[in-house]
Amino acid sequence: MAIVVGHLGTPEGREALVAAVSEARQREKALLVVSSGSNPAPEELEALAGRLADAGVEHRVVPGTGDLADDLVRTASDEHGELIVIGLRRRSPVGKLILGSGAQRILLEAPCPVLAVKP
């Protein structure tokens, strides 16, 4: 069982990573970080690994295919994820009527609970 989170360089992605690290520590679980694309920059992954090592969290980076919603759901299913952590962005009044399609897919298809955070 592990905590699953996507790796995105957006404010929402960074907040999701912070929350996922916190959840992994509290639950004493490993963290599975799904990269946002199939070929993330090596220096980006190095920086991520350094931050996670400094946080004292057991972790593994899982390569993504480019469809982060599918990758998160698949990883959680394949690895028996205990929790998926996602970041949500603030939306306009009209946009609030509909969640982002990726977030909606994750919420509907996830094999485990989903924690949604916002910056």
Task: Kindly describe this structure.
There is one protein chain. The protein has 119 residues and is an alpha/beta fold. The chain has a single domain (2-117), classed as Rossmann fold, CATH 3.40.50. It has four helices and five strands. Strands 3-2-1-4-5 form a five-stranded parallel sheet, sandwiched between helices. Helix 4 links the parallel strand 4 (83-87) and strand 5. Helix 3 (68-78) packs parallel to helix 4 (101-109). The two termini are 26 Å apart.
Share of helix, binned: 40-55%
Pick out the low-confidence regions: none
What name goes with the CATH superfamily? HUPs
Secondary structure class reads: alpha/beta
> Judging by the overall fold, what is the CATH architecture?
3-Layer(aba) Sandwich
Counting copies of identical and different chains, the oligomeric state is single chain
Query: What is the CATH topology descriptor?
Result: Rossmann fold
Q: Please write the CATH class name.
A: Alpha Beta
Overall residue-averaged pLDDT value: 87
The geometry reads as globular
- Counting DSSP E segments of at least 2 residues, the number of strands comes to 5
Arrangement of strands in the largest sheet: 3-2-1-4-5
Radius of gyration: 14 Å
Number of domains: 1
Main attributes of the structure:
about 120 residues; 5 strands; UspA; alpha/beta; globular
Quick take:
Belongs to the universal stress protein A family. By secondary structure, the chain is α/β, with parallel strands linked by helices.
Could you outline the blueprint of secondary structure elements for this entry?
Elements: E1 2-7, H1 11-27, E2 30-35, H2 42-54, E3 59-62, H3 68-78, E4 83-87, H4 101-109, E5 114-117
Parallel strand pairs: 1-2, 1-4, 2-3, 4-5
Protein name: Nucleotide-binding universal stress UspA family protein
Domain UspA: 45-118
Family: Belongs to the universal stress protein A family.
